[in-house]
Each structure stands twice: as structure tokens, then as C-alpha cells.
Amino acid sequence: MIVKVMILKNPLPTPVHKNLFQVVLSVLILGLVTAACQPFLPSTATPVTAGTFPVDPLFNEYYQNLGGENLLGPVISALFDEEGLKCQYSVAVLMCLDPEVTGAARYRMAALGDRIGIHEAPVTTGMQPADSMVVDGYLIYPAFGKMITSLHGMDVVGKPLSNPRYNYALQRVEQYFENAAFYDRFDDPSGKVSFLPYGWYYCGRTCHYELPENKTFNPIIQPLDTPFAPVLEQKGGLNFSGQPLTQPYTASDGSLEQVYENIVVYGSKNDLSVVHLRAVSRLLEMIAVPPGPQKYTAKDNMVFYPTSSGLGYHVPVVFNNFINDHGGMDFSGAPIADVMYYETDIPRQCFEGYCLDYHAAAAESLRVRLVPLGVKYLAHFAPANAVPTPMPKTKLVLAASEQAPQISSQEKQIINVTATEAETQNLAGNVTVVTTLTLPDATRTTLPVSVTDSSGRTSVNVPAMPSLPNGSLVVYTVCVDTPGSAGPCVNGSYLIWNQK
Fold this sequence. Notes:
Layout: E1 4-5, H1 28-37, H2 60-65, H3 68-72, E2 80-82, E3 85-89, E4 94-97, E5 107-109, H4 112-116, E6 133-135, E7 138-140, H5 142-150, H6 154-157, E8 165-167, E9 172-176, E10 181-185, E11 193-195, H7 198-203, H8 229-235, H9 238-241, E12 249-250, E13 256-259, E14 264-268, E15 271-277, H10 280-283, E16 292-293, E17 302-308, E18 311-316, H11 317-325, H12 329-332, E19 340-341, E20 347-350, E21 355-358, E22 368-370, H13 373-380, E23 396-402, E24 406-407, E25 413-421, E26 432-438, E27 444-446, E28 450-451, E29 457-462, E30 473-480, E31 489-496
Parallel strand pairs: 24-31
Antiparallel strand pairs: 1-19, 2-3, 3-4, 4-5, 6-7, 8-9, 9-10, 10-11, 12-13, 13-14, 14-15, 16-18, 17-18, 19-20, 20-21, 21-22, 23-25, 25-29, 26-27, 26-28, 26-30, 30-31
């Protein structure tokens, strides 16, 4: 780990005092696959991007009025019928039209948030921005409120299903509503709001669109007990702690413990009115430096915290203000070092209970942020009974090939499948795949699931199909079996040819 000791620029000490530190912050087959695997009416146009479709004329005006592809993402299905409605998926939403209704009221977005199962109780007792609004007890993040206004109100996006969620792993604020969900990146000074991919997530394997990396979406659906919530709300709530990652569990010292994205909290099972932070910075071996003499004062935008014998640490005023607003130094724990650079150009200071980063280019309310140390703690220290909530899995890439490109209707076929981790290119074992066959008459058959071995490989046996006529094309789709979400898929085909 590369560490550079530094001092922050204004509002931190001025360059005159930088000597305290050493470094300053200075085509046919594809057509058949698409038609066979979609429960939608066929599209007559050829998509420009794999898995996309043209906007049906029924939705063209509605789609464009809501921001078109720039906001809703590309359309990823053909037009289809659902309970008497005409519907079409975009990456962000499911657009529907009621042909029995006239006027603008015939258009709506489907309540995909409800279908996915997202819901959390409203919490509005934490710190609230001055320009925030509250709907049904839910605090609406200001930037999302402006977006909702531009979309012509709550009737379009539906009722809120969650409070604003500070997703520290992906560095963004998220909020879920019945019909749509939004995010705002921490480091985007323009305050640009984007849609989260409800449509892509709910459509699942039926839609063959590959989501870009920057659109990652893994909603937290499993409800978790949060016995520490009343005390944490007084410290800043989920904006401060991040989302809970585990159920409460009994720690090795007998206390009740729970891991959040940014912190690890614990307390007595008999009295949860008093909550403490685990010293995760020391447990995770964040850089610790012995205390030194005082060289700066408030005139230099520094607060000096003595530890012993007149020695201590300098804490920038911006960090000190954050600490005071979130339970004080008694809650955060003492500093373990002065401000430093770690691997990035972001200044960081660690205290026993958490670490703070300073992002000078971000919006003022997002400049001081906690580092998601809870995720690291969960990987290293939390016991098995912590029962972590599902986290985004490693992205996988599938490869599949048939043993013979042409067989007779009396022969069996073997489809060989390989799973690889996208980032490391390592072969991925214990991956469950499901194979679906699509026959010339558009009927579909799902074969028994198969699991890759330690070398990342498996084989799927396809029985002989003597009833198929000569010249039949059998299309197969192999997908990672990921309940509740869309796993990666790969397609192929082979020919039934009986020698005459």
C-alpha cells in the first residue's frame, strides 16, 4: 500500500504550513433466438445494438416526452400484451398502454418496484437537507425531487418505496419508487440524475440485453432486523452508517453485533440504548502513526486532539465538524493518524471506528464521506452466523458449443459449457446453468440444470428428438441460474439432418 502523508488545501491548512507533512494535496440464428426467447410479438426492425428493439409507434411520443433513450435507456423488448395492456420494456421502466382508456391517462409505467419486492419503512428522523420534501413519510432526496417534478410528478414514478440510500460501494445515492428508481453519483458536480434499470432487472433472462458496467443494480430486498437503528438515527442514520449487510449476531465477546457498509456496531443484548463502534480501522490494519506535538491551531483550520504527554493528532475542521454532527469523538474513537493519501489522490483520515475521505470536487454535502470498511470487516472477521445479505456476484462469462453441428434426429447431442470470471479470466466452478431448447415450431423445453466442476466446465445432454423433421434447426440458450435476477446467457444452434 502506497501512503503519502499530506495536508488538505483550503478549507484545511494553508500552503504556508505544509512543512508539517511531507506531501501536499497537490444474423439468422440470432433472429431465431430473439424471436424464440421473447414472450413478445416479433419486431420487424433490426436492432442497432444486441438485445435492443425499436420503440413501438404506440409509445414513441410517451417515451420521448419522458426523456427518451438518454433517460429511460434503450428499449429491450418488442411490444407485448399483459393483462389487456400493451407493454414494452426499456432498460429503466416497463411502459404500458390501456387501449380502453383515452387521453394521456392511458399511458403508465408498471409498478416494477413492487413486483421486485422492494419496500422499507419510512425514516425521516435523520439529518435532512434544507430543500428536501417528504412524501408518505419518506424523505425525498432533493435531486430526485427535481427529477420527479420534471417528469410531471409523483403520479408518473409512483409512491416512494425506500428512503434515500447511500450506496458507498458504488459511490452514489439511490432511491426506489413504485414505477422507477434513480441514482445520483457522489462525484458528479452537475447533480445529474439517472434511472436505475428496473426494466432490465425485472425482465430478467427474457430480455437479452447486456447491462453496461456503470448501470450495476442489485436492490436489497431481504428485510433485516435493525435493533441498533434508534441510536444510529441519532448519529445520522443510514446516510452515515450505510446499509446493513448482516442480520444481528452474537460476537465472540458475547455482545450483539451488526455489520453496516461503513461501520460495525455492537452493544449489550440487554440494553441497546448504548451502542459502540468496533475499532475496525485497527482491526483492518489501516495505517497508524504515533501521535506528535501540536503545530497547528484553529487559525490553520485544524483541531488538535491530544492523546498523552502533550502529543496528539491534527484533525481538519471539516472532519471535526462531521464527527461532531455524528456522535462526537466518543463515538468515532480517537484518530490513529493524521490525514494521509492511500492508493488514490483522495485525502483520508482514520479514527478507531471509521475512516473519512475528502472529495473536494463533489457537492458540498458529499465532500466528507465514510469509507466502506464494513464490507472489508465482513470478509475478514464476521462469523458464519452473521448471515450476510446477498452481495453482487462476480460477473461471469459463459461459452457453449455443441459436440456436433449436425446430427440425425435419432442421435443425442452434447452441449459443452465453460464459465469464466470476467475480470480475472479464471475458470469458475460450482456455477449452476440452465439450458433451454427452442424448436422450429417455437416450443421451448428446459433441460435439467447442470453445475460446472472445479475446472469451470460442464456438459448438458440433449436427448434424441426423432419427431423433428429433416432440416430442423434447434436453437439452445444456456444461462447462469440466478434466481430473481438476470444471469449471463449464451446462444447456439445445431441442425437436424437425416442422411438419405
